[in-house]
Design a protein that fits this description.
Shape: globular
Number of helices: 8
Structural class: alpha/beta
CATH superfamily: P-loop containing nucleotide triphosphate hydrolases
Radius of gyration: 16 Å
CATH class: Alpha Beta
Distance between the termini: 14 Å
Strand order of the largest sheet: 2-3-1-4-7
Number of domains: 1
Amino acid sequence: MLRTREAEQMRVFLAGVSCVGKTTVGAHLAALRGVPFFDLDTEVERFFQRPIAQIQAECVTMDRYRRRAAGVLAALLTKEQSLDCVIALPPSGLMGNYWKSVKTANGIVVVLTDTPENIVQRIAFYDQNSQLVQKVLSNSEKRAYVSDIRKDMAYFGRSYKKADVVVEVAGLSPPDVAVKVDEILSYRH
């Protein structure tokens, strides 16, 4: 359902663990709604003009990195084009300084969920320059990643309870998830 200019503006924040599909679904959802799409990781790299791995190395701790990245989110939210958009957040996007910006941004928070077994099938690997690296995982590596994903789900899951909507993506294509999210948002407004 492509919206008209007269329709109500809405910020949509997509949250969830790594590789659940936030960026892919977010791009489809933004296209469906006819609004801009922002992937916060991409915005951080654009702002600092370096790959995330380099920024994280400079920050030494993940807490320092997250504070810097949250500053990029806060700056993005001051721009007019962010008044009606879709923003893909990092897994920690509903925590700390990210959350301070999100909760005051007048938006809808949607958490995407899936099983660890499905998520591991979508894992992507990147080098220090944020370039995609092809890697085939062995069965033992897959089991280890499933375990890590479960830990991330438990750790970040506490913050995901702040979401307005939780959408299960298992068995759906990214365009189908976007349609599902759009339908839910339409009912909410």
